[in-house]
Amino acid sequence: MEDALATIRTGRSALPWVIVALVVFAAGASLFWMNNKIAALGAAKARTQEVNGDDTRRAVAAIRQRLIEVQKGQTALTDQVTDFQRRIAAEQGERKLLSDQLGSISERLDALSSSSADANQIPQQPQRNGRSKR
Predict the structure, then answer these.
(1) Cα 128 off chain centre by
(2) Is residue 115 pLDDT above 90, yes or no?
(3) pLDDT for the residue 99
């Protein structure tokens, strides 16, 4: 009976050690699993950031290219506006010249009209025919 009690006592004293060993093993396994999980997530995040970084670089390059195109367009439009302004100024000068010439011609025409009217008001002497009344 004492042997049975000794066996039970040794079984009881071994049980806490087995439980402690299982807890330590479970804790170690969970730490190992979490470490691997964290490493995997970190690697995935690094790849995602790398891909996002590449996407960001591409987007920035595309925006820079568009900005260059817009600046070229602005320069071209500025040149066109300057050309139009120059042409308009030249046409305004031509219009002014034509207007001055038209005014001068109008003054001459008025002068001719008034001199013609003055000439018509001067009594004309009757013209004599080579034939006379007999």
Answers:
(1) 92
(2) no
(3) 95
Q: Which two tokens stand for residue 63?
A: 């925006």
Q: How far apart are CA 22 and CA 111, in angstroms?
A: 129
Provide the pLDDT confidence category of residue 122 given band limits of 50, 70 and 90. low
What radius of gyration do the chain's Cα atoms show?
57
28-59 per-residue burial string, b: 16 or more CB within 10 A, e: under 16: eeeeeeeeeeeeeeeeeeeeeeeeeeeeeeee
Q: What type of residue sits at position 131?
A: R
For tokens 């995602």, the residue is 48
Q: Is the pTM of this model over 0.70?
A: no
DSSP structural state of residue 130: S
| DSSP element (H, E) containing 72 | helix 2-121
More confident site: 60 or 51: 60
